[in-house]
Design brief:
78% of the residues lie in helices and 0% in strands. By secondary structure, the chain is mainly α. The protein is rod-shaped, with a radius of gyration of 41 Å. The protein starts with a helix and ends with a helix. The relative contact order is 0.03.
Length: 113
């Protein structure tokens, strides 16, 4: 092999190595930019999750507040005119013997018959 042929072969080898290195650099740059895009999307989703969690917590506390017995009683009595029953509004079922029993006694006697 002559000197010119060796120099030409060496140049081809160097060009191939440079081409492979450039391709590798482009791949690395592309992967880094893709990673940055994914990280940005992840950050946006985390912010949305935090906002949604805050909204869920707010709605949960509103549900707890709105379902308190005192709130329901207030709405029932003020808005709908409901009243607590008096003894005049009660009707007793069964015989006079059963009416003397307390509720717990009545349940107990029915359960153990």
């Amino acid at each position: 092999m002559s000197r010119h042929e060796r120099i030409r072969a060496d140049r081809k080898s160097v060009i191939k190595i440079l081409a492979i290195m450039m391709l590798g650099i482009f791949v690395l740059i592309g992967m880094r930019s893709y990673g940055a895009i994914i990280q940005h999307e992840n950050n946006v989703l985390e912010e949305q999750n935090e906002y949604l969690q805050a909204e869920i917590d707010s709605l949960s506390s509103q549900i707890v507040e709105e379902t308190k017995v005192t709130k329901i009683e207030k709405i029932a009595t003020q808005d709908y005119g409901m009243v607590y029953p008096t003894s005049d509004n009660c009707i007793r079922l069964g015989s006079a013997d059963e009416s003397d029993q307390g509720l717990a006694d009545a349940i107990r006697s029915e359960a153990y018959k």
